[in-house]
Amino acid sequence: MEKTHTLEQPDEKHETSCAHSGEKTRRQFLRDAGKTATGFGVAALLGHLGNYALSYAADKEPVQIGILHSLSGTMAISEVSLRDVVLMTVQEINAAGGVLGRQIQPVVVDPASNWDLFAEKAKQLLLVNRVDVVFGCWTSVSRKSVLPVFENYNGLLFYPVQYEGEECSRNVFYTGATVNQQAVPAVEYLMSEEGGAYKKFYLLGTDYVYPRTTNKILRAMLLAKGVPAANIGEEYTPFHHQDYQTIVGNIRQFARRGDAAVISTINGDSNVPFYKEFANQGLRSEDVPIIAFSVAEDELRSMDTTALVGHLAAWNYFQSLETPENNAFVSKFKAYCQAEGLPGGNTRVTDDPIEAAHFGVHVWKQAVEKAGTTNVDAVRKAVYGLEFDAPGGKKQMDAVNHHTYKPVLIGEIREDGQFSILSRTGLVRAEPWSEYTNPEKGCDWVNHKGTYQKT
Q1: What is the pTM (predicted TM-score) of this model?
Q2: Collapsed DSSP state (helix, strand, coil) of residue 412
Q3: In whole angstroms, how far apart are CA 337 and each of 21, 142, 274, 346?
Q4: pLDDT of 234-244, one tens digit each?
Q5: 162 lies in the same domain as 193
């Protein structure tokens, strides 16, 4: 496996807020970290980093990057594979000569599905390890947690997961989908004759910013399209929720006439008991289809898919895409997992966030080489408009708004845990703010100095 530096997880909480105007110096931060981090005092920190310095003497100093994904806790079911694909991509880049003639050295941390710990780990990556870029986060609450850190210390985050929009930071590049690149076209598909012409929609999600904001947009869209408010259900459960008996009973009652669909923004390991209870109560995809925005091939690995056949998901990539480029990517990922002795080995799968994370690393590499430096401000400008032949096809970074042009795909779950692709569009431009809730807002970091104006 690519040589990495892994930070230990602190076992007591200390102040990590970056919202105040006075920033700590690096020396102050090291002193505080030494007081609070288990086995990670100042002397140990400097000694650990010094060990790497010995290896630098004989060659160019490596470029350090951060990997900020939950390797434990409720979100590990989704995030572990993002760490794995970033490490695989780094290994490939290093084997080809690295970036600017320098090897890339990943620094891996585990924020453990703890949103406050995400901010603390982000701060350690930027101020202790001095990484040039970070690849990480899954949930919007984790991204919101680290955002002040990246903005206050001018760090750079590549965020690979679909999200609710209503954000456009100069310190984040969003390689996942916005609502107009996933949720809105998914519901439009269900409303179409091709998708079943459904009239009622039950919005079910985990109780945090992404599901609530996405469903706010979807509710506004449905009302604008003439769906009565009485035909829109909405309910939320906490992270790691396990008992869906009552909720599925409510869905049965809501869908008793056979014209309803479930729009799922459930995240993490709660998907397992939800789909299980759905099947236990005799609900099938032909009766009440579920279309999910956070269930992909990687989540299906830990689920019994026999009862899930026919349910849907909306993404921007599926492993089942039959192209030489995608087949090669899938084979490389499986081979990497087997060679590194990772759980699942060559039975591992790819999915949309995995492909988006892989794409993000390559975009950053291209931008560094275009800029001729790892300097954050120079790299930021170099990203605008970059294209890359990703496994799912050519994708492009927007020229002004830090988002990604992506196709929209609707897939149907198969018994083997893969998806049959039912619908696919061309490249769709991301809209950070939805036309249904904030039509006057946009984002242009090039022409308007980051003011929120329609582009």
Answers
A1: 0.85
A2: strand
A3: 44, 26, 29, 6
A4: 999 999 999 99
A5: no
Token pair 């390559």 is at which residue?
Answer: 362
Same domain assignment for residues 190 and 169: no
d(CA 95, CA 348): 23
User: Quick one: CA dihedral 325, 327, 333, 339, positive or negative?
Assistant: negative
Give Dmax over CA atoms of the chain in angstroms: 72
Q: What residue spans of 192-229 are helical by DSSP H?
A: 209-224
Give the position of tokens 């807020």: 17
Question: pLDDT (tens digit, 9 = 90+) per residue, 60-88?
Answer: 899 999 999 999 999 999 999 999 999 99
User: How far, in Å, CA of 207 to CA of 19, rounded?
Assistant: 24
Q: How far apart are CA 152 and CA 46, in angstroms?
A: 24
Residues 157, 38 share a domain: yes
Judge whether 72 and 9 are in contact, CB under 8 Å. Answer: no
Burial 285-313 (b: 16+ CB within 10 A, else e): beebbbbbbbbbbbbbbebebebbebbbb
**Strand arrangement of the beta sheet that strand 133-136 belongs to:** 5-6, 104-109, 63-68, 133-136, 157-159, 172-174
Q: Which domain holds residue 257?
A: 183-292
What is the distance between the alpha carbons of residues 153 and 133, in angstroms, rounded to a whole number? 12
DSSP letters of 318-350? -TT---HHHHHHHHHHHHHHHHTT-TTGGG---
3-state class (DSSP) for residue 200: strand
- pLDDT one-digit tens code per residue, 256-278: 988 999 999 999 889 999 999 99
pLDDT digits (tens, 9 = 90+) for 309-348: 999 999 999 999 999 999 999 999 999 999 999 999 999 9
Report in angstroms the alpha-carbon separations of 434 from 161, 217, 443: 18, 7, 12
Q: Considering 271, 292, 313, which residue would you say is the last residue of a domain?
A: 292
Count the neighbouring beta carbons within 10 Å of the beta carbon of residue 387: 12
